[in-house]
Design goal:
The chain is an all-alpha fold. The protein has helices at residues 4-17, 24-50, 63-85, 111-140. Helix 2 crosses helix 4 (111-140). The model has no long low-confidence stretch (mean pLDDT 78).
Length: 141
């Protein structure tokens, strides 16, 4: 793969620091889910802006607001990295708010039903990523 050096480096870092082995498939699934969630929010925002309603702020956010947003995103990314590298029991995409197996928000849901819901989220995210790319291409032309 084109990322073989990165995968080898991460595997060596995990091995040398006593972390569990690096699972690239789980890492890629997590990345796809997170990008899909961002794309779903972006397409929702684009549609509501067309209707005249503003969901997310426009470019008028000052530097302080942008730095606060960056700080919050850095905390989320650090938490995701911890979950992927240290807490290997967590499912890819589970943010620890009770949506995983045996979580309070999924009581009464079988593992098969949970897997089906996660697969639907993955498909919706892929569709939203294509929609966001198409909207960006249309905006540029």
């Amino acid at each position: 793969s084109p990322f073989h050096e990165v995968e080898t480096y991460l595997s060596e870092v995990c091995e040398n620091s006593g972390l569990p082995p690096f699972e690239k498939l789980r890492w890629y699934r997590e990345a796809e889910l997170m990008h899909g969630r961002v794309a779903m929010l972006a397409t929702l925002n684009a549609f509501t802006r067309e209707l005249g309603e503003v969901v997310l702020p426009d470019q008028a956010v000052d530097l302080g607001g942008k730095l606060q947003f960056l700080e919050i995103m850095a905390v989320f990314e650090a938490y995701r990295g911890y979950r992927l590298l240290v807490n290997t029991e967590a499912l890819a995409g589970d943010l620890g708010i009770g949506m995983g197996p045996d979580g309070p928000m999924t009581s009464g849901v079988t593992l098969e039903e949970l897997a089906q819901k996660q697969y639907r989220e993955l498909l919706n995210g892929r569709l939203a990523m294509m929609a966001a790319a198409a909207m960006a291409a249309q905006q540029m032309s």
